[in-house]
Design goal:
Layout lengths: L21 E4 L4 E4 L2 E2 H7 L2 H10 L5 H13 L5 H9 L6 H15 L8 H26 L13 H10 L5 H14 L6 H11 L4 H12 L7 H12 L2 H13 L19 H15 L2 H18 L6 H10 L7 H22 L25
Antiparallel strand pairs: 1-2, 2-3
This protein binds acetyl coenzyme *A and oxaloacetate ion.
Catalytic activity: propanoyl-CoA + oxaloacetate + H2O = (2S,3S)-2-methylcitrate + CoA + H(+); oxaloacetate + acetyl-CoA + H2O = citrate + CoA + H(+)
Pfam families: Citrate_synt
Keywords: Acyltransferase, Transferase, Tricarboxylic acid cycle
């Protein structure tokens, strides 16, 4: 292997390609999408504007936004065949599994599967952005034995999602906090799921296959699945009075505490202050301040004992809980948002592609003869 480059485990610190989509800056704890500070996007823009920005490189003007949202709203419905497939899912299936299968089915229905021209890929992206929330909500209601609620073209993505899940649109404070979470979750350079979508795309496979792979990668608790584990942990702690001891005990037992740590950020995640602000708003809006009190003690203890800071999943988990979502819906909600980053990366990879195929250093058995079956 001497003439080869030996990358560190987990490719830590390795730059594998260029991207013009987002810039993660751990030295200043900041993040930009296409050059715009993510905090500014949260305060100024809707999730739909950010979705347009992600795949087009520029913020839309009014006419461009209307054309984009009109198309997205037109594409929200899923076919009767897909509804029938969802109707066969085990009622207790995890929504990330039902979503992965739902996206796969969308790929089977799309006759343009092998057409990956920029225009077709843009259209497929808008279809995924529009239909992923419908699949999540339909699977949720199927799991509960409830009738499905059709998408409503008069609503934003966030409003329509709440309506399809619960049959009503919550207060504007809740919608704003949800929209902010979608903006913050939208994109984060070469994270594991995005890298997975780029690896799949690099073989010239199709967008649906890449997104299904991205969903599989995001599901893991070391990545997007952490937002669910955070809420399980906070509920296990149960009371603020237990929080410090719970954390000290976890650290003493060398547990990986979900919602803390990050491969790139070492002194805090750029997105946490904004999300935390909106999670606190949810706590005062719902009166469920207890969850934030527990979270704050867990955070203070982790930071003072280990110097490890929370990542975005830490404030996002309790925010979704206080909005009324069941815990296993949290990572699918992440997908509703990250579809924007994934598809931007899929299109970027496609536009300047070389198959991603690293080497491995073999450490298995030395070369040997096959023993015939009767002699084994
Ligand atoms: C949206 C997102 O995907 S954000 C990430 C969500 N994931 C989580 O919250 C899961 C919990 N966190 C982790 O498992 C890790 O911090 C990861 C996966 C995010 C990053 O992994 P890595 O970059 O490989 O971190 P690494 O293992 O180098 O951590 C450095 C040290 O901090 C410790 N550490 C890191 N995160 C944690 C944690 N959450 N709890 C306890 N200790 C931790 C490690 O054990 C390690 O200690 P050591 O040097 O004594 O062995
Ligand atoms: O960047 C990462 O490794 C994980 C992350 O925060 C994200 O995907 O949002």
């Amino acid at each position: 292997m001497s003439d080869k480059i030996i990358a560190p485990k987990g490719l830590a610190g390795v730059i594998t390609d260029d991207t013009a989509i987002s810039k993660v800056m751990p030295e200043s704890n900041s993040l930009t999408y296409r050059g715009y500070r993510v905090q500014d996007l949260c305060e100024t823009c809707s999730f739909e504007e950010v979705a347009f920005l992600m795949v087009n490189g520029e913020l839309p003007n009014r006419t461009e936004l209307k054309a984009f949202t009109d198309k997205e709203r037109d594409y929200r419905r899923i076919s009767d065949d897909l509804k029938a497939v969802i109707g066969k899912f085990p009622k207790d299936a995890h929504p990330m599994d039902t979503l992965r299968t739902g996206v796969s089915f969308l790929g089977m229905e799309d006759k343009r599967i092998w057409d990956d021209s920029p225009a077709t890929n843009m259209d497929k992206f808008i279809g995924l952005l529009a239909r992923i929330p419908t699949i999540i909500a339909a699977s949720y209601r199927h799991g509960k034995g409830l009738d499905l609620i059709d998408p409503d073209k008069n609503m934003t993505i966030s409003e329509n999602f709440f309506n399809m899940c619960f049959g009503k649109v919550p207060a504007k404070e809740v919608i704003k906090a949800f929209d902010v979470s979608l903006i913050l979750y939208a994109e984060h350079s070469f994270n594991a799921s995005t890298f997975a979508t780029r690896v799949i795309t690099s073989t010239t496979s199709d967008m649906y296959s890449a997104v299904a792979g991205g969903i599989g990668a995001l599901k893991g608790p070391l990545h997007g699945g952490a937002n669910e584990q955070v809420m399980h942990m906070i509920k296990e702690v149960a009371e603020p009075a237990n929080a410090k001891e719970w954390m000290l005990d976890a650290l003493a037992n060398k547990k990986k505490v979900m919602g803390f740590g990050h491969r790139v950020y070492r002194s805090g995640d750029s997105r946490v202050p904004t999300m935390k602000k909106y999670t606190e708003k949810m706590a005062s809006f719902t009166g469920e301040e207890k969850w934030m009190e527990i979270a704050n003690i867990l955070e203070e203890t982790m930071v003072s004992e280990k110097g490890i800071y929370p990542n975005l999943d830490f404030p996002a988990g309790p925010a979704y809980y206080m909005m009324g979502f069941e815990i296993d819906m949290f990572t699918p909600i992440f997908v509703m948002s990250r579809i924007t980053g994934w598809c931007a990366h899929i299109m970027e990879q496609r536009a300047d592609n070389r198959i991603i195929r690293p080497l491995s250093a073999y450490i298995g058995s030395a070369e040997r003869d096959v023993t015939p079956m009767e002699k084994r």
